[in-house]
Design goal:
Elements: H1 2-26, E1 28-30, E2 41-58, E3 61-83, E4 88-104, E5 110-113, E6 120-126, E7 129-134, H2 142-152, H3 160-165, E8 169-171, E9 175-177, H4 182-187, E10 195-209, E11 212-225, E12 230-241, E13 247-262, E14 269-286
Antiparallel strand pairs: 1-8, 2-3, 2-14, 3-4, 4-5, 4-6, 6-7, 9-10, 10-11, 11-12, 12-13, 13-14
């Protein structure tokens, strides 16, 4: 009887020790960079919602006011065709959808597909230059090319997020201040955040997912652009794959304010805009078959 009791006690101690060991393992991680491979697929969805209330004032008088909502949503797939020493050098990118919705005040929303929607392109990195061609080797029209360059300017360059986190050991609760140039890489859209002045991330939890461990960070991004009076503060979460240093999910939202002075010196007026910006990014990765 006493032996059975002792064995039960020992078993309980071992169980508690195992649970504590497991908990400890999930409270820390070491990030490792995994380069892409030829044939690998990356599926990305990016959505940006901006709602603004705008007022035009001259002196103490409000001349006009309006409300506007803009939503940009894009789903694209990138298939790696060829790898260089440190990064992909050739890929096929397919835009499943790419659309913009604009709604003014109480009017019906107007949605338009962007010219890249439903099309595929071959992209090649040669040094600092990025070549973009249609699949039959032609240069895309100017309106398509402008969108493609804005979306794909980082293709084939070393991943700054992977460089920053590779080999870094972190514990839950630990914070890091990232180099501000990483903001564009994190957000996906390159033209909507002004000049980033602060990008802080705090590791809150480490999750087990089907694709491996996911480090979840509370994230705050602050952007200021004095020339145009832009002020943006975004808060939310970011998920980073521990074993690849690839961004899997981003959800950020927060207030936006833009104060501009327009017109000639004798007839200047102010344009004041306030609202909310939401940015959501989802990415999944499939190994080469």
């Amino acid at each position: 009887m006493q032996l059975s009791k002792n064995l039960s006690t020992v078993g309980m101690i071992l169980l508690l020790w195992c649970l504590n060991a497991t908990s400890f393992a999930e409270d820390s991680c070491v990030f490792r960079h995994q380069p892409f491979a030829a044939g690998e697929l990356s599926n990305q969805t990016v959505r940006c919602d901006l709602s603004l209330e705008m007022a035009i004032r001259q002196g103490d008088q409000t001349i006009d006011s309006s409300n506007q909502e803009v939503r940009r949503e894009q789903q694209r797939q990138i298939k790696i065709v060829e790898m260089g020493a440190k990064a992909p050098v050739k890929a096929i990118v397919t835009y499943k959808t790419s659309a913009v919705m604009v709604q003014q005040a109480d009017a019906r929303p107007m949605t338009s597909s962007q010219p890249v929607s439903g099309k595929s392109y071959e992209i090649t990195r040669v040094g600092e230059a990025l070549s973009i061609k249609t699949l039959d080797g032609q240069t895309p029209p100017a309106n398509e090319l402008a969108l493609l360059k804005a979306n794909l300017e980082a293709f084939g360059l070393p991943n700054p997020i992977a460089t920053f986190f590779d080999g870094k050991s972190m514990k839950v609760g630990q914070s890091v201040d990232l180099p501000i140039e990483l903001a564009k890489e994190l957000l996906g859209f390159q033209d909507g955040v002004g000049n980033v002045t602060s990008l802080k991330m705090t590791l809150t939890k480490i999750l087990d997912t089907k694709s491996g461990k996911l480090a979840v960070f509370d994230t705050q991004l602050i952007a200021r652009q004095n020339q145009d009076g832009v002020s943006i503060t975004l808060n939310g979460q970011l998920g980073l794959e521990v074993d690849s240093c690839r961004t899997a999910v981003v959800n950020l939202a927060g207030p936006v304010a833009v104060d501009e002075v327009r017109g000639s010196k004798d007839g200047q007026f102010q344009v004041n805009s306030t609202g909310q910006l939401k940015v959501a990014v989802r990415a999944t990765y499939q190994a080469a078959r």
